[in-house]
């Protein structure tokens, strides 16, 4: 166990799940990120909406989606992590 966890400066990622999503995280650790933002192009269109949330998972979260375009920004929030979903998918396919 390390007494001090150092943060990473930036990470660019691409993810594909019901569309394409490109996201970047700035100044983050395993659990927290100072800034996270994503841009996505989804397979399914939607009515335009905006969601602004504060508290719970972080300081501020803004989500915007119009037709197939999506934009999301989080300030001082939990680090986005989809590794556990990939592990669940692998376990589900093994049980079948």
Give helix % range: 10-25%
Order of helices and strands: EEEEH
The low-pLDDT segments are none
Query: Structural class of the secondary structure composition?
Result: mainly beta
Q: How many domains would you count in the coordinates?
A: 1
Strand arrangement, largest sheet?
1-2-3-4
Overall average pLDDT: 81
Report the total helices: 1
- Assign an overall shape: globular
Note the beta-strand portion: over 45%
Number of strands: 4
Distance between the termini: 37 Å
Q: Assembly type of the shown chains?
A: single chain
Q: Taking Cα atoms only, what radius of gyration do you get, to the nearest Å?
A: 15 Å
Please give the largest β-sheet. 4 strands, antiparallel
If you had to describe this structure to a student in words, what would you say it looks like?
The chain has a four-stranded antiparallel β-sheet, with no helix packed on it. A hairpin with a 4-residue loop joins strand 3 (32-53) and strand 4 (58-78). The longest helix has 13 residues, at 83-95. It is mainly beta. It is built from one helix and four strands; from the N terminus they run ββββα. The radius of gyration is 15 Å and the shape is globular. The N and C termini lie far apart (37 Å).
